[in-house]
Amino acid sequence: MRRKDREMNEAFAWEILDECSYSILSLVDHGEEAYGIPVSAIHDGKNIYIHCAKDGKKIELIPFQKRVCLTAVSRVVLKPFVFSTEYASGIFNGRISLVEEEQEKAKALRLICMKYAFENLENCEKAIVKSLNQTAVIKIEVDEVSGKCNKYD
User: 2 by DSSP, 3-state: which?
Assistant: First the structure.
């Protein structure tokens, strides 16, 4: 990291992932072009989970990825009079795969419900049962984490 004065610890990076509304998953396509897509991500320990449709570009690209990167950003405040932005970020690198095991998949979907549909938890189990076979769950086994913060005053 170039700006060591903004470097934050690993726990900080995970906190940012927990609080952000969405993250950006970065992959490489077959022509080695960068491909970034916003996703709703949660984590359980050092595993990040993302739910999505069973088809689409990111699903097609998963088998060809050696490594992926997920970037989470939160606490954004524009600072126009100092020509800058306050922010907090976490960057997570690791190996990506599709979750095939039904129990792990259901657990990930419960965690996603807790973050993104907390007000509707009473309907979470029914939704999981209904969508389990129609929904893909992606797992990133994280082995490298960095956090960064730019804050004024």
Answer: coil
CA distance 84 to 97: 37
Report pLDDT digits (tens) over 71-118. 999 999 999 998 988 999 999 999 999 999 999 999 999 999 999 998
Alpha-carbon gap, residue 145 to 43, rounded angstroms = 13
Is 6 a residue whose pLDDT tops 90?
no
CA angle 14, 45, 118 (to 5 degrees): 75
Mean pLDDT over residues 2-18, rounded? 86
Cβ atoms of 32 and 79 within 8 Å: the answer is no
Q: What domains lie within the chain, and their CATH numbers?
A: 4-101+135-150 (2.30.110.10)
DSSP conformation letters of 86-147: EEEEEEEEEEEEE---HHHHHHHHHHHHHHH-GGGGGGHHHHHHHHTTTEEEEEEEEEEEEE
**Angle at 15 (CA atoms; ends 13, 19), nearest 5 degrees:** 120
pLDDT tens digits, residue range 33-42? 899 999 999 9
**Could you give the C-alpha distances from 76 to 4, 53, 84, 121, in angstroms and in order?**
20, 29, 11, 28
